[in-house]
Amino acid sequence: MFGIHSLFEALRYQLFVDFGYLMLFIYFLAMTAVTVYCVLQFHLLYLYKKYHKANPTITYRKYDADDESVPFVTVQLPMFNEMYVAERIIDCVAAQEYPKSRFQIQILDDSTDETVDIVAQKVIEYKAKGFDIVHLHRVNRQGYKAGALQDAMPHVKSDFIAIFDADFTPRVDFLRTTMPYFEDEKVGIVQTRWEHINKDYSLLTRLQALQLNVHFTVEQAGRSYGNLLLQFNGTAGLWRKKVINEAGGWQSDTLTEDLDLSFRAQILGYKIQYLEKLESPAELPVEMNGLKTQQFRWNKGGAQNARKLFHLIWTEGANKLTWIQKMHATSQLLAYGVFLWVFIAAISSIPLAFAFRELGISTHFLSFSILGLFSVAGISYTANITAALNREVPATTWEKLRFFGLFITFMPISLGLSLYNAIAVIEGYMGKASSFVRTPKYGIDKNQNTFKKASYVAKKISWITIAEGIMALVFLSAVILGYRTDNTAFVLFHSMLAFGFGTIFFYSVKHLSVD
Asked: Lowest CB count within 10 Å: 284, 291, 295, 310, which one?
């Protein structure tokens, strides 16, 4: 009996050790993937800084505001249920410092609410003022945004198309600053940098601005300056019409048709001209459920495009793209999987935290993941503090301290989004189809405005939100147990995860609609 008991104990111990090594392998694999991504991001930072060191001043040529010989351009405004911002975007486009006779406005309206009447009235108003403006209202919403853009193509009168989402407020000199770049026949797309009209509305909007500034400085500009593939961001940019047609048109088989078409266009040999210093202000999501919807769409669409575009990059692009272009293009598509790797690392770290002693492994090897943290911090600092586009004078001590406070908050909240975004990525890789759920906007550009009783605000808590609350409790328990058993290798990591998941859960519930 004693021998059987000893055998059972030995077997149980061996299973524990084997499971520990399995968790170690999974964690190491996940963190290696995250670290490789961060290293490639650091390369974009190098390209960005190298360019700005050689070109400290950036200026853009503009057409004269009253020059009737400028190219004719169509401005498309796709929208779906945008009653709070529809008038604002139409007014901004009509106010362009561009000859009225040289541009057409198309409102691609799939709305099912009051937006339809609001748009119809604005169209009547501007037609009376002599504008070439048309209201294209669909009732089936087939293909969602991509379908609306593709269906409108036969109605486009020009060789160039500008696109704005409904929450944008383009500068009055947008068209006359961007259109000159199409004089280069290789330029198929012009993309401008997003700016944020409500970034100081709340902590949530400030954190979004911090992250988006990284994308529109270090990432987009770094790729542009390094002659790498970059993406059209779906709005605040222009297309050469023939490039859309040659690249296969707008396709609705992914949730990010903009990334899809822009990669296909670049593989054909066309260039995206990125204008880092030309900002296009837009409204950031002000409530957590809307932000999560946006994040889900971006991450799932990115994963769908990874499935769709890899073979194009490595087959059709084999002789057209350099090896570094293919490597970074692949990294850009795989980057949407970072949240999946982060979540895998988070889950595997719980049993691993209590297995180190039994495995006889020093926890010092975990320090390699610090490289990724330093990379993210350096890139964020550059994008938000020292970036040439928004830093004409040195940052004040207060601005630097404010940045570090936001960054310290940003990291755990990003971790808290890992479950939601990991589900999006898995669905994308699996090819699961889903509808295009647009991010609701409420016309908020002042601190005193509220959204709690507005239409479009989520009314029900989702199962993923409940799971996020459970995750917060799980990682809080791991922190407490880690202290009690003196297994503190992951206490900081688990504390960040508990705070991040708890914050996401709290605001997801808090931002539900108030009837």
From this structure: 310
